[in-house]
User: Fold these one by one.
Assistant:
Number 1:
Amino acid sequence: MAEIEILPDEAALATRGAETFIKIANEAIQTNGRFTVVLAGGSTPKRMYELLPGAKLKWDAVQIFWGDERCVPPDHPDSNFRMASEAWLDHVQIPRENIFRIQGELPAERAAQLYEDEIRHLFGGVLPRFDLILLGLGEDGHTASIFPGSPAVYETMRWYLAIPHKVPPPPLVDRYRLPIPLSDEDEEDEGFSRTTMAHNRLLRFETQLRAFIDEQMTLELEHLRAKHDDLEKYIGLAALEDLLEAMTREFGELVLALRGAREREIRERQ
């Protein structure tokens, strides 16, 4: 079960956060050969980041991701990437290729899609289970740029979303699904209901199936290219695309049904 630890002030929070970060990082590197971490932005984690350059870590085994970003260039004062770089990343030997930033200077929808595509590629199309996800909490209760009343709470297909925000600059936000535990055992430990567990299990299966079909489509395309100059005469690739579209429709109906059941369950508990 999750543990809640209450600390006396921001300095103690930063110190405890850095200690926990280093402990989890070393354990992950020793076990898996790498440490994957999703960073939070805003003011909450900055003091913790400033403590990390002195840590004894195998920095070339650390991979950095972001849970959210603002729609600004990387050198903008509001950039979460800039804050983390100045407080920490510029002061340690992390290879540039291990730092995966959201391209906030691009149009929001484009940047969100590119980041989702990049993470899907890095993790083989399977919804990743990061070693550590850092989250802050705003005064209005938002976390990872998921604001109260935001449709991102109910998003079930996308991994990253562009979310408009009334106070500029609007943030690029990671989808709500990212922090959900990936195994049935974890979900049981966290007290998830059977409806929610079924919903999450369906999403995991859908992600794996999409990755498999994408792989088969790529193989089919390579096969056709090797044998034929004019691909339009052959239907192998189109048939696979039709299959994927049909499966997507069926999954969509199931997801909507489970989402409705989950929302009714939440209302009944209130």
Note: The longest helix spans residues 194-227.
Number 2:
Amino acid sequence: MAQEQCEQRESEENQGRSQAEGERKESRTTESSESYVTRLQKVILQNLRVVVNNVHVRFEDTGVSRREKSFNFGVLVDQVQYSSTNNRFERVFLNIDDKKRENRSFSMLEVKQAAMYWNTNVHENWTKNSEFVNLDCAKTIDFSKKYVENLKRKYHQFQQNYNQNQVYLIQPLDLTIKWRSNLNQKLQPNVPLSTDNIDIS
């Protein structure tokens, strides 16, 4: 009788150990899976690149601020590109382990051919043009592209001294901003949290 009780107790202990070991294995598997997903997310975010092409933002005042005088202005950008970089500000595939070892992150914003135009005392704005108002989305974009192409053609003529009229309020320029951030959680007296460098051409 005592032997049967002992064997039963030993069997229950073995089952308990097996169950506990199974739970530990399942927990390790879950943690491993979560850490893999988290790492994958970090790799994707670290190497994410945002590119926006052909930006044209236009504002029109049809005699609201000044009666019987309309004006419009717009901002043009050929391309805007933002991404993280290596420590030489090169756009390459980034290893998150290198970033941790350096305790620094690097990123760069590039703006190509940004310009601004301003037209005063205009006789007609787009919002008053029935042809423009009735256009669908795709044709509206085409309308805007033709306007921008015409501005660029006039600007080219201005550069070649074929046209004496100024085309842009701010002439096309390229802008590059580089950021360097300190990822060290401990503040260091002689190390800034971030530095930046701006190049305009």
Note: Residues 24 and 30 are 10 Å apart (CA to CA).
